[in-house]
Design a protein that fits this description.
single chain; 250 residues; alpha+beta; five-stranded antiparallel beta sheet
Length: 250
Amino acid sequence: MAMREQRVADTFVELADTLVAGFDAVEFLHTLTERCVELLDADTAGLLLADERGSLRLVAASTGQTQLLELFQLQEEEGPCLDCYHSGQVVTLPDVSQVAGRWPRFSAMATELGFAGVHAIPMQLRTQIIGTLNLFRMHPNGLDETDAKLGKALVDVATIGLLSERAVRHQEMVTEQLQTALNSRVTIEQAKGILAERHSVDPDQAFTAMRRHARSHNRRLGEVAGEIIAGTVNVTDAVADVRAGNSARP
């Protein structure tokens, strides 16, 4: 018992450690399925994760049979794992043969592949559901209460860790984008001054000419500004249009 408790503690630490350099989400989710099979009274496990459109995709499966059954559910749009995702509730099937009326195609396929029981756990934090962790058994009867609670705790920790990593990555991306925008703004101001002096136009006209050139050549404004500073781009035509009072949009 002491050895199992130590393994459980180690697994919680392992699943909580997502904010590391080189974090690999796919490897992390495979680890989650492996640890659930190792620690719980389940024979195999599969994991479905929602994409940016909210459609479930198979990410991890501990056996080929599990992969087939998970893909079958997605293809047929029928099964306890899908219901778990859409409802946000744990779905337990002690005996799949007893639910043929509810999920006839799933029940038939599960039986054919040798599965008798399913325990699906939503990967959920408050109202956000990002997928499901699905445990499969070769024999009837579901997980006992202790294993069911432990499975839910493992999934909850993994979900929090994964969402935290996403949030940090998103914040880093936003920060990088903001810094890029600030840097571009400085470059643009410098380029405006160069164009205004070089072509004897006011700063607003210089900016309009830059935008016109960037749009007409499908370029980023910051890139064009940098090239104006470096003297590697010719925007004379755009400046001439602006000076002539061309009313076309920049």
